[in-house]
Structures are given as structure tokens and as C-alpha cells.
Amino acid sequence: MSSSKKNNLFFLVGLMGSGKTYWGKQLAQKNKYKFIDLDELVESKNKQTVLQLFNELGEDAFRKTEHETLIELFSLGEKTIIACGGGTPCFYDNMNLMNQNGITIWLNDSIENICERLEQLKTSRPLIANEPNSHLKNTITSLYHQRLSFYNMAKYSLTRIEISLDHLQNIINIYA
After folding, report:
1. Tens of pLDDT along 130-176?
2. What are the helix (H) ranges across the chain?
3. What does CATH list as the number for 3-175?
4. I need a surface site. Which of 21, 41, 93, 172 has the fewest CB within 10 A?
């Protein structure tokens, strides 16, 4: 695989609610890159929300569809910022595949910040849709620990205080 291809794709990974879509859109707009939200792409292809896909097909079928959609993105010829689903790196060797086909950036925000954001948005999130707010922190903490080894495989990791347009832009500039 040529190094120029590796420079075309930038994958934002991290827990749900860590800001992957928010920062991805800003970064793509600033650099005039294409932006893709992997969950939205899966929804568009299947004409169902992620929550519906989880509920009707189960997580295994959703993850297979997600993986197939991710693989299709590797052939994109234009510079693209891709916001991945929180679990994307953890299935079907996706994290290794993303590292082979682009630059991975882990948005490692704090559990507290993530929970604060998710309390208002959780009904569309299959893994926490029915979770009472009183249990949300425990659930998110558990997911974090289950996924940590995958997130740690990212080429770059930005902690809560480092997650900013400037820090993300510095990473893009290395590969642009």
C-alpha cells in the first residue's frame, strides 16, 4: 500500500459521546476534506437506524455490516475524515485494518464528559438506550475498559485536555 493512500484517510475512534462526529466535521470543513460518519453511512445503506439494526438483527449482524461498510471506505481516493462508531475498532480486526489504511486518532475524553453528553442523547444509542442515568457512568466505564486495548492501538491519542481543533490539525498537517 502506498504511503500517499495512507495519508488520505483519518479515522476518529473512541467511546460514544467522545466527540468524533463533532470534531470530524470541523476538521473536514477546515481542510476541505470529505467527512463520513460511519454510523450514518451504515444507516443510509440499510435504511434503518443503528438502534433499529441492533434491535432487529442483533449486534453481531450490525457489526458485520459495519465492517463491510468500513472496508469499502479504504478505496476512497480523496482525503476523508471518518468518525467511527464507538465499537468499530473492537470487531473483525477493524483497528488493524484502519491502521493499515490510514491514520487513527483516539479521542480519549473523560468518562464524566462523555456521560454528561450522553444523558441527553442516549435513546439513540443501542448499548445504553434503556440505561437509567444513575447507571450510565458504570456502563460507560465498563465499555471503556472492555475497549481500551483496541483504542490503545490508535496511532495518536488525545486526552480530554488535548482534544481540540488545533491538536487534531497538527496531526493532519504531519500527513497532508
Report:
1. 777 778 889 899 999 999 999 999 999 999 989 999 999 999 999 87
2. 3-6, 20-31, 38-46, 50-57, 59-73, 94-101, 111-121, 133-151, 165-175
3. 3.40.50.300
4. 93
